[in-house]
């Protein structure tokens, strides 16, 4: 297979819809079915289980469309898709919602762990993913990677606390809006880092 030099540009609204649409669809479907119980093959399934079963193929179809349109999927997207299939499948197969609720924890532990390994080698693996979006010096990338590592580990702990101590509906709100908002807030608070370690300033000099 020929490796693409970079993702092909597509309409930003369409791209956002493909990336966030499945999560929003999961949220809406959960609110619709959360209080219902379905009997399939003699086994009772709560609405959350059926919504999870529907979320897996919707996410895969969305990512397939994104790959077809852009010719590119990030490593983070691929890892997320694999974990969704594994933990979503276990949730439905074993009729146990705990597996799907643990998925974000494992995702953020994997991402944080990967960044930690890169840092121990004196490298910023985050740079290979985001280099095109944020021109930073090597020092800037190392600082951002270290902060992102702690951020991912913090999200993993927070997800564990919420799903283990609160109701399913609270966790769904947290997963749909809380995690996404946290990422936006994190990058918004890094403005000083982007200014102080911008590689564009070095080029200008």
UniProtKB/TrEMBL annotation:
It is a multi-pass membrane protein. InterPro entries: YciB (IPR006008). One of its GO terms (cellular component) is plasma membrane. It is found in: Cell inner membrane. The gene is yciB. The chain crosses the membrane at residues 16-33, 45-70, 76-94, 106-121, 141-158, 170-189. Keywords: Cell inner membrane, Cell membrane, Membrane, Transmembrane, Transmembrane helix. This is Inner membrane-spanning protein YciB. Plays a role in cell envelope biogenesis, maintenance of cell envelope integrity and membrane homeostasis. Belongs to the YciB family. Pfam families: IspA (PF04279).
